[in-house]
Specification:
The chain has about 600 residues and is α/β, with parallel strands linked by helices. It contains 21 helices and 18 strands. The chain has four domains: about 160 residues, 3-Layer(aba) Sandwich (Rossmann fold); about 160 residues, no CATH class; about 170 residues, Rossmann fold (3-Layer(aba) Sandwich); about 80 residues, no CATH class. The strands form five sheets. Strands 2-3-7-1-9-8 form a six-stranded parallel β-sheet, with helices on one face. Strands 15-16-17-14-18 form a five-stranded parallel β-sheet, with helices on both faces.
Length: about 600
């Protein structure tokens, strides 16, 4: 049994990575079986399909990882209690062998099934389900606090009836224990004594201190949506250790936060903010890593809470408003698609070597429910999305978890997407947008979708998966029930104020391109609120007319008025709306004379 501290099945990729790294030879196949969590998955026929999948693996000697298993555990009562019967049988060459048979409950039937000697089953149980799990089931297993911290036990020797709390923290400590060449520093404690801490421990302590100040104290735990107090920061540190090992570094390599800026602009901003010649280089490195980690967590920040944090340093506001994108999912997706341009969207190490793509291709996006998200299943809105993303309609796939009543129907829909990307060209982007209304969709359904995506290895680097989790506005203040943000298995997370699509005619791609370059209009051609906010916080040079969001606003209003007058004139050459002309004449002198003093 694997006990998972999160609601997002974070232990599953950790376990699979552990088996791969330890080169554990599993006899047979490793098969992941999950009860989907859809409305009809609790029906007897759907549960029977799950039991039959386990039955087939049991007869073939495979290993089963059973997820969301509570509805079907009673079917394996005899198996879990080792109620087996030994039946002698004859092999092909006449030698005598023994087969083990147990009973499986399939619906109202109890069928004898063969148990292969190599068969193993791993049951995944979230910590939140422990209080509601039957005590006899839990008592069959001996609890071990960690999976790897017992040196005298190898993974191959661990046998049935043991349960492990497999958390990111355990895996992080295990990884650090193997990095003997990593630097340890002498750090002053509060009592005046010095203690030796690893470089990564100091960085993590700095990130936790920043979260405590901004998230816990300044916003009463409401700033970072989806933040898990134990696993979110641990997942970022775990990812930083993995990147360091892959690149042969002796210090953590912090995962990059999403940025609409180019690599050159990011490097310039970092050098201006963090370089202090009076500080030792190692202190500068620690400060940089802490700031990068906090920038990563800013992806979860809700704008209405961020602006209430008076103690927030200007550099964090600049990162949030000018570098990151939190106000428009459509504009974010367009920026993400453009990340395929390696010259603009990839970082380079100190030697100038490319480090490849810095942004994930699998994203969980939090947002409030709105009409454009709820109606995204309509074809006309999907055409509008494809146009705004500058892709063909056949390059976009849209799924809504609420539209499917069973795991079977949903798997069939996903197979259509997998078939599409198999036959698609290697240079044509394929975008899958999956929408989940969290007032009616369970975490189990979300985990089921993510699990199927993780099982498929995308060889085409131009495949992007956007999982949009939207919730009623009244739930925005309750982040405790939010789907947890755990940065594992190449998944990234971001909070958005709006989806950015209106149920009306879309503006031209020209306006979206303008937003990409100037950041002043949104994906549907209207004024982008982040530029106004950036100006309010003094993050925009007000003397630069070309960067003025108010100038851009009046320019756009002026253009719209001219278009309306031209349309009226085309329909009736003898009549032009005098009021419109008068309005334009009054507006035009103000376009270039406006200031921020008023």
């Amino acid at each position: 049994m694997i006990i998972d501290p999160t609601e997002s099945e974070a232990s599953v990729p950790l376990l699979l990575g552990l088996l791969d790294r330890e080169k554990v030879k599993i006899k047979g196949k490793l098969i992941i079986v999950s009860v989907g969590g859809f409305k009809n998955d609790s029906r007897e026929s759907s549960l029977a399909d799950v039991v039959l999948s386990v039955k087939a693996a049991m007869e073939n000697g495979d290993t089963v990882l059973l997820l969301n298993s509570e509805p079907v555990r009673s079917a394996f009562y005899d198996l879990f209690n080792l109620h087996t019967t030994a039946i002698p049988s004859k092999a092909e060459k006449g030698t005598s062998t023994t087969q083990f048979v147990t009973n499986l409950a399939i619906g109202s039937l109890s069928l004898p099934c063969i148990v292969h000697p190599n068969f193993k089953i791993i049951v995944h149980v979230p910590t939140s389900q422990i209080p509601n799990t039957q005590t006899p089931f839990l008592d069959r297993y001996v609890l071990l606090s960690g999976l790897l911290n017992e040196a005298d036990r190898s993974l191959h020797a661990r046998i049935r009836f043991e349960k492990y709390v497999l958390s990111i923290r355990h895996m992080l400590e295990e990884k650090l224990s193997h990095q003997e060449n990593w630097k340890s520093l002498s750090v002053a404690e509060a009592d005046g004594h010095f203690s030796s801490k690893s470089f990564s421990e100091i960085v993590e302590a700095g990130i936790r201190d920043g979260v405590h100040r901004l998230h816990d104290e300044a916003s009463n735990g409401r700033l970072l949506y989806g933040f898990h107090p134990e696993e979110t920061i641990a997942s970022i540190m775990y990812q930083s250790i993995q990147l360091a090992i892959e690149r042969g570094k002796a210090v953590p390599v912090m995962p990059t936060s999403f940025s609409a800026l180019t690599a050159a602009e990011v490097s310039k901003m970092l050098s201006e903010e963090y370089y202090d010649p009076s500080m030792p280089p190692i202190i500068q490195s620690i400060r940089l890593l802490v700031r990068q980690g906090l920038y990563k967590l800013l992806q979860l920040a809700r704008p209405e809470q961020l602006f209430l944090v008076d103690s927030l340093p200007p550099s964090y506001r600049r990162e949030y408003l000018l570098a990151q994108e939190h106000f428009n999912v459509i504009l974010f997706a367009r920026l993400l698609l453009s990340s395929a341009d390696a010259e603009k969207r990839s970082l380079r190490d100190s030697a100038g070597a490319s480090l490849g793509h810095v942004y994930a291709r699998k994203w969980v996006l939090y947002s409030r429910s709105s009409a454009d998200i709820i109606n995204i299943g309509k074809r006309e809105l999907q055409i509008q999305v494809a146009n705004l993303l500058a892709i063909d309609f056949d390059q976009l796939s849209v799924l809504s978890l609420s539209d499917y009543s069973s795991r079977g129907n949903f798997l069939a829909a996903m197979e259509e997407f997998f078939h599409k990307i198999k036959n698609g060209g290697p240079t044509r982007p394929q975008v899958l947008i999956c929408v989940a209304a969290m007032d009616s969709v369970s975490n189990d359904q979300v985990n089921f979708f993510r699990g199927r995506i993780d099982e498929y290895r995308f060889e085409n680097p131009n495949i992007f998966v956007l999982l949009v989790l939207h919730f009623p506005p009244e739930r925005v203040f309750s982040s405790q029930s939010a789907y947890p943000a755990v940065f594992l298995n190449e998944w990234d997370f971001m909070y958005f104020d709006a989806f950015g699509l209106l149920a009306r005619d879309a503006s031209s791609i020209e306006n979206v391109d303008r937003a990409l370059h100037r950041g002043v209009v949104s994906g549907h051609g209207e004024i982008d609120g982040r530029s106004w906010l950036a100006s309010a916080f003094g993050l925009v040079d007000e003397k630069d007319e070309s960067a003025s969001p108010l100038t851009a606003a009046f320019e756009q209003v002026f253009s719209q008025l001219v278009a309306e007058v031209r349309s009226t004139a085309d329909m009736n050459p003898h009549y032009i709306n005098a009021a419109k002309v008068s309005q334009i004449r009054r507006l035009r002198p103000q376009i270039y004379d406006c200031t921020f003093d008023s």
